[in-house]
């Protein structure tokens, strides 16, 4: 009986691990070929699984970009600097676009970078501490195996105001496109395909893009395409290689 229960438990946890649409092995490196047609640039980006921890019955995973030169002001709220996932007991992997804690950290970084450029508005940590709480909302993309093709993805909105800074992010018109086999340099994967409209308003400069992403179990993002309103491809990202920690 004990042997049977043990076998069942092992099978259960193995199945649960396979349902994760992210990599949970700390130290793993995911290499991507990133192409930017506007800048006429192609580069290799390395994303490292930098943190894996358990909180509130969820596994939280953080991936950090290892290419410092690609971190610019335009990367604020972009997924090319940091990627976060949360995997819970309901077997749903949440791709966290932005949450309240992360939003405050981002605003602190943005204000610190730009404050010296604002005449008469030097960086004041105490002022930021008082005003950084003016934020609301969170945006996540739920990734599940039991989706129905054409099913809508919940919309989300996040806004934050700190001192003279104001920023907002909104995801809408999201849908699950079903499952699709995708072949990239790292191999062939059966992926969950999602699409959504992403609108950013940073420093009162709105920008809208249309995002399509492919996620594989146990790996995470395999492919991504970003287009404008007319459908013209602006940026793309494909998985080149997976390097496990030694």
UniProtKB/TrEMBL annotation:
Species the sequence originates in: Bacteroides gallinaceum
Record-given protein name: DUF3108 domain-containing protein
Gene3D superfamilies in UniProt: 2.40.360.20
Pfam families attached to this UniProt entry: DUF3108_like
Lineage: Bacteria, Pseudomonadati, Bacteroidota, Bacteroidia, Bacteroidales
Superkingdom of the source species: Bacteria
Secretion signal span: 1-19
Residues covered by the DUF3108 domain: 156-239
Keyword vocabulary terms for this entry: Signal
